[in-house]
Specification:
The protein is of the alpha/beta class and about 350 residues long. It has two domains: about 200 residues, Type I PLP-dependent aspartate aminotransferase-like (Major domain) (Aspartate Aminotransferase, domain 2, 3-Layer(aba) Sandwich), CATH 3.40.640; about 130 residues, Aspartate Aminotransferase, domain 1 (Alpha-Beta Complex). The chain is globular and about 55 Å long.
Length: about 350
């Protein structure tokens, strides 16, 4: 009789090898391993740390990563947040301490949701000088437009649930590197903790990779049009978009990226909680939810979802007010998306007072 389990394992291995080879090629990496989610990828990288080690993180980064570092794995290690104004000097000073315990620097550029941009080359040079591992989450820029490994970063992470899968039906992650020792450690950690990707999600990743470039090009064009529209709208107070010439780190963005995808954050021009909640509800073409990167556009009220991570005062200081929205632009007609945003923005009541804490 046929050993069906063995046959499934063999088929899964062949598909895994194919997908990992494609991702490694796109990221200019030597090695890649797929995982069962983006958070799994992050947790595997964090498990490279020993008990008592410290991880340095940038000022703004993905909320899920923040929860993982601050609330789930904080019993194993400590963490330090880099300064928003000059993270480079601060990192150099921290790593130069006689008893430095920082063993990993975790980055995300552009960051989700505030679009902070970090200079990969400067950070990687500091890390290599002090023999510290550097890792970057490249989910929201994708390997089509950015390759952190080519700028000296040691590890690149992806939530393949987002742009690589591209259709909001896949849950998977990936880790890419040029370092064989790091790769072997991470593959062992993945396998021993059961964080492999299943065959169905590998199939969806394979399908998504076939259209990634053409989807990325369409999303890139749509996002620029929508960001410009939002920037000029009287009912929008501020837009966070890394390709604006007025962005504080636009020169870094141009140096290390050839484009960008569809994540845009913005404050609608009201301080009223109820008004902020009504804005996304009126949209017809944007799905409401926390994910991103699908062919269908989506929106999330980021200010409300992030406030639980900070004190009320710190949340407001960081820009996480109730009126902060984040949209993930899909591949629909840009004019239709703008028309939908317009019908909802036009109904926003401009109410100004201190937001509820």
């Amino acid at each position: 009789m046929y050993n069906l389990d063995l046959g499934n394992q063999q088929l899964n291995k062949e598909l895994e090898t194919k997908v990992e080879a494609q991702l490694a090629s796109l990221e200019k990496a030597k090695y890649c391993l797929t995982t069962n989610s983006g958070v799994s990828s992050i947790s595997i990288v964090l498990q490279l740390l020993n008990h008592g080690d410290c991880v340095a993180v940038q000022h703004d980064y993905y909320n899920g990563t923040r929860s993982l570092i601050n609330k789930i794995m904080n019993h194993r290690y400590t963490n330090v947040t880099l300064d928003q104004i000059d993270p480079y000097s601060q990192l150099e000073n921290l790593l130069s301490r006689p008893n430095n315990d920082i063993k990993l620097v975790f980055l995300e550029s552009p960051s989700n949701p505030m679009m902070t941009i970090i200079d990969f080359e400067r950070i990687s040079q500091i890390c290599k000088k002090h023999k510290v591992i550097s890792a970057a989450d490249n989910t929201i820029c994708s390997p089509i437009y950015q390759n952190p490994l080519t700028h000296g970063i040691d590890i690149v992470i992806h939530s393949c649930t987002k742009y690589i899968g591209g259709h909001s039906d896949c849950v998977a992650g990936a880790i890419c590197t040029k370092d064989e020792d790091i790769y072997k450690k991470m593959r062992y950690l993945r396998d021993i903790t059961g964080q492999q990707t299943n065959q169905f999600n590998l199939y969806l990743m394979d399908q998504g990779l076939q259209t990634l470039k053409i989807r990325a090009q369409r999303v890139h064009k749509n996002a620029i049009k929508i960001a410009e529209y939002l920037k000029s709208h009287p009912k929008v107070a501020k837009v966070y978009f890394p390709l604006f010439d007025t962005h504080a780190e636009i020169d870094i963005m141009k140096k290390q990226s050839t484009g960008y995808l569809g994540l845009i954050s913005f404050h609608i021009n009201t301080d009223d909680f109820d008004e902020s909640c009504e804005f996304p509800k009126r949209l017809k073409m944007f799905e409401f939810g926390p994910s991103l990167g699908g062919v269908i556009s989506s929106i999330e009220q980021q200010g409300t979802s992030h406030k639980s991570q900070f004190t009320p005062e710190d949340a407001i200081k960081r820009g996480f007010k109730d009126n902060l929205m984040r949209i993930s632009v899909g591949i629909e007609n840009a004019a239709d998306l703008i028309a939908d945003l317009e019908q909802s923005l036009s109904k926003v009541k401009v109410i100004k007072y201190e937001p509820k804490l």
